[in-house]
Write a structure and sequence with these properties.
With about 350 residues, this protein is of the alpha/beta class. The chain has helices at about 1-15, 35-40, 80-90, 120-130, 165-180, 195-205, 225-230, 250-265, 275-285, 295-310, 315-330, 340-345, and strands at about 50-55, 65, 75, 95-100, 135-140, 155, 160, 185, 210-220, 265-270, 290-295, 330-335. The strands form 2 sheets. Strands 1-4-5-8-9-10-11-12 form an 8-stranded parallel β-barrel, surrounded by 8 helices. A two-stranded antiparallel sheet has the order 6-7. It binds ligand PBG.
Length: about 350
């Protein structure tokens, strides 16, 4: 009985591999036989120039604070942001994104700090633009670092987030950031109509060359918690579900992206990335604009937590994650895992 089974198995293999007359490339492993051939036939590759590294900025000099929920990531004073950005640029990173931590006494209901020409963000933009002019500087347009309640928009007494009032402020904010040296402004607030308003505001202030990267499909995600911990922007009421998207929706994401594109967005983003690969893939098929993805703080924290427990190897896990995001269709990826991925790519 056993022998009979064995014979059957052998004849199956013989049939499968004896059909060279059909000229079918049935031996799939030929293309995997060496590192050289594997790299020659690779369909997707992750490049250093695909990556954007976010920074959390704090006041002071030579200041470096650990972030409990993001092992390996620090809040840095502007001088250290500059030093780190210089090193990363030398190693091949072309873009950085800046997020300021606003001291609580500078936060307010009206988020005035967002426009102050000498704010922490604006000073850091000027410093880096002057010292590293070839690096692409991306600055965030949203009110959460500046409002006392931590929402991305202005709120009324009934704790509703006010769309049009917020958009007017975002337009001014984008101009102030462009003035300070931002190459790309990135509205991450999800208010309606802000991309068109920002485009017009920039153009009227002669910043026609400042790009807009729109966080087009930004989902109301639980994976942003470490970021809010890093920026100290915990919400004092409610949640962000009246402006960020329901995680189950994909057609709505495509419509959001279409509107942003019509309003003048240069780059369209999907965020988070790893759980939304279908959204990235569909958007890639529908737009001729570059698609960005944000591999967010919680996605970083998960892998690092498992790494610290010895469950997996972070550099290769991050490489695989980002390669998947690229394969889905992203052209550029915001990620905190730059250090690990560079280590992986260099070895
Ligand atoms: C807020 C903003 C958030 C992130 C980027 N910009 C958090 C939020 O919407 O609450 C999240 C990034 C991350 O988790 O890494 N405008």
């Amino acid at each position: 009985m056993k022998e009979k089974l064995h014979e059957n198995a052998l004849s199956f293999l013989k049939e499968r591999y004896d059909n060279t007359h059909l000229n079918l490339p049935l031996r799939m492993r030929r293309n995997r036989k060496s590192p050289a051939i594997r790299s020659l036939v690779a369909e997707t590759s992750l490049l250093k120039s695909d990556l954007v590294l976010p920074f959390f900025i704090i006041e002071g000099e030579r200041k470096k604070e650990a972030i409990a929920s993001m092992p390996g990531i620090f809040r840095l004073s502007p001088d250290l942001v500059l030093r780190e950005a210089e090193e990363m640029h030398t190693r091949g990173i072309q873009g950085i994104a800046l997020f300021p931590v606003t001291p609580s006494d500078l936060k307010s209901e009206q988020a005035e700090e967002a426009l102050r020409p000498d704010s922490l963000l604006h000073r850091t933009l000027r410093l880096i633009k002057k010292e590293i002019p070839s690096l692409c500087l991306i600055s965030d347009v949203a009110l959460d670092p500046y409002t006392t309640h931590g929402h991305d928009g202005l709120a009324n007494k009934a704790e509703e987030i006010l769309n049009d009032e917020t958009v007017r402020l975002l337009g001014k904010m984008a101009v102030a950031q462009a003035e300070a040296g931002a190459d790309v402004v990135a509205p991450s607030d999800m208010m309606d109509g802000r991309v068109g308003f920002i485009r017009r505001s920039l153009d009227l202030s002669s910043f026609q060359n400042t790009s807009i990267l729109a966080y087009s499909a930004k989902y109301a995600s639980s994976f942003y918690s470490p970021f809010r911990d890093a920026l100290q922007t915990e919400l004092s009421f409610g949640d962000k579900k009246t402006y960020q998207m329901h995680p189950g929706n994909v057609r709505e994401a495509l419509l959001e992206a279409e509107l942003d594109e019509k309003e003048g967005a240069d780059i369209l983003m999907v965020k988070p990335a790893g759980m939304y690969l279908d959204v990235i893939a569909k958007l890639r098929e529908r737009t001729h604009r570059p698609v960005a993805a944000y591999h967010v703080s919680g996605e970083y924290a998960m892998v690092m937590a498992a790494y610290e427990k010895g469950y997996l190897h972070a550099p290769s896990a991050f490489y695989e994650t980002l390669l998947g995001i690229k394969r889905a269709g992203a052209n550029l990826i915001f990620t905190y895992a730059v250090e690990q991925v560079l280590e992986f790519l260099d070895n």
